[in-house]
Amino acid sequence: MHSLRPGHRLRLLLFLGAVLAPCMILVALSIQIVRQERELREKRRVDEQRQLAREIRNDLAARLEAIQRDEIRTDLEPGQSYRHREVALVAWLDEDKLVLPWERDRAARTSRDLISKADFEPALRDCERSNLVAGHPLASACFQQVLAAAKHPAQAAYARFLWADALDRAGERARAEGPFRALLNAGPELTDEDGVPLNLHAAQRFAESGTHRKEVVERIRAALARPWLPPVACFLVSQVAARLDRPPAAAAEAREIKEAAAAHVRLVEQAQSLQNDFARLGLLAVDGRPTPLWVSYGDERWLVGATGEPKPTAVIAVRAKELFQPIETRRAVRFAAAGESLGDTFPGLTIVPVSAVTPSASGDFERQLLFFTVLLVAAATAFGAYLLWRDLRREMAAVELRAQFVASVSHELRTPLTAIRMFAETLQMGRSKDPETASEYLETIVNECERLSRLVDGVLLFAKLEQGKKTYHFRSVPVAEAVAAAVRALRYPLSQQGFDLQLSVEPDPLTIRADRDALEQAILNLLTNAMKYSGDARQIELSLFRHDGDAVIRVTDHGVGIAPEARLRIFEKFYRAPTPENQLIPGTGLGLALVAHIVKAHGGRVEVESAPGRGSTFSLHLPLQSKL
After folding, report:
1. CA dist., res. 58 & res. 56, Å (int)
2. What is the distance between the alpha carbons of residues 414 and 408, in angstroms, rounded to a whole number?
3. CB-based burial label for 151 (10 Å; 0-12, 13-18, 19+)
4. Best label site of 312, 465, 533, 587, fewest CB within 10 Å?
5. Helices (DSSP H) in 332-434: which residue ranges?
6. What are the residue ranges spanned by the domains of the chain?
7. Rounded mean pLDDT of 544-569?
8. Is the pLDDT score of 357 beyond 50?
9. What is the pLDDT of residue 276?
């Protein structure tokens, strides 16, 4: 594209100085103000969030300190619960091993010691062997003797359990019901060697038989009310809960008990995982002293911390959900994976405000006004710039097209003029003595003159079309005659360049109302284009036939072809497909524009079929003249 003319440059500079520069300064200042306000608002938000995090950290630390202070005490007695409902587990550290609460249960330890005494356990084992060897009657008498000799309720309860179990296995369920009934009413402090309360064993038997349901439910509820159960007891409670959905009317109660039993199972599983993973949590320093950390752990999220100076060291696990919920409600925050950190005391624990600080109404209005002002100025500037650019681009494009047209026309004129002058000077100087050669020279001069006439006529026709002065003189025209006239006009150039023109004309006469000169001009333009763009191919087909009430004139070449994106513009004035091959072919870019205008004026249409390297086919569809 040509460079800007002085007038264009002046208009552009005036626009930049008068409109664009002040607008850009205003936009820049507005953006700076908005950026500063945004930075200030972001800084205020960050400061408020950090202050909120400090307050929440202090609240959380105070709450956990109170929980630690209240829960660090002697082991829970059967039937007791933790003082704070958020506490999931209190365990103790023995050397490097975390001891879970059921592993140091005092009631279970007492029962184990009493059962394993030397004056009691051998007698029990003898009864069990008698039951296996001699059968039920002898074993039953043996268990009664051991029961009578028991010195402690724990020993008597355990002997009664083994006796009832032996009766039940022997099929004496009626006789076993009495001992099991007594065990069902036993206290939770009476356990077996695994720490499982004996009343749960009795509850299991009655749940299987479907009797004493009320007492069974009471014992299961009492067991589930404890903060923890040994793993074996959890399994036993789950089995009993699974049998409590009979009768159907008790399904809701059974479902509630099953959910509570499942919660105890999850607690036990997570506690055992904590026992295995405790060493890597970093809650103890190198010297074994507890660190002031609360670490998030487990699927059911716990906050785990250690306390005790220096020993014994207690490890407390607090249910994070129950601890966080009041804080989230009161502070309008949520604990999330990414947000404002609560500091080194709570590694990995962050908060996010539920909603950002609401700006004032005046601030909103000022920002909106500033935004719309900048938007309006930017839109006006952009529209003005677009109008100026479009005007300049059109003028520059017109200048470029005019220059290209003048260069193309000059080149087109120079070629025939050079040939005419060369052959005329040859004849003038008498260098051609042969009459046949002289006649050939004269024929060349005549053909080149006709070529000049066609070129000048085309330019004049286009000028008239541009000015709207072109008028067509319509009359009945046999299309075959117009085709034959065009072929005659190009006979010499076709033969000189070695083209083989294959002509196919329908025998039936086809007549249209047309301006014969314009129609011939259109056909000539198509044939000339076919010659120019045939490349190395030397075959052109010209056909005339009837189709759907139209006379169709079709010109086909086998040359360079047209790209799909160029086919949409080839009928524009001065347009030539921007390919290296086209740059070497002379032309003005007016031929197809004239064809399209002529065909449209005759009520017809032009169709194009082409592909790069496969040639092109142009078809003129002209309506046939109606028969009167």
Report:
1. 5
2. 10
3. exposed
4. 312
5. 361-428
6. 6-60+358-403, 102-277, 471-623
7. 88
8. no
9. 92
Q: What is the pLDDT of residue 156?
A: 86
For the chain, the residue count is: 628
- pLDDT tens per residue, range 241-251: 888 876 666 77
Helix, strand or coil for residue 444? helix
The closest alpha carbon to 592, from 543, 526, 514, belongs to 526
pLDDT of residue 317: 93
C-beta atoms surrounding 472 within 10 Å: 14
Tokens representing 95?
């050397």
* Amino acid present at 136: H
| CATH T-level fold of 471-623 | Heat Shock Protein 90 (3.30.565)
Least confident of 105-114, 209-218, 353-362, 586-595: 353-362
What are the Cα distances from residue 429, in Å, to 80, 444, 448, 489, 623?
137, 17, 20, 29, 54
H or E element that contains 475: strand 475-478
Per-residue pLDDT, 32: 79
User: Which strand ranges, in their side-by-side order, compose the sheet holding 333-336?
Assistant: 333-336, 350-353, 340-341
What is the rounded CA–CA span in Å between residue 342 and residue 358?
24
For the structural domain made of 102-277, what CATH number should be given? 1.25.40
Angle between helices 435-467 and 591-601 (to 10 degrees): 60
User: Distance (Å, rounded) from C-alpha 148 to C-alpha 3?
Assistant: 122
To which residue do tokens 């039937």 refer? 79
How much is the pLDDT for 413? 59
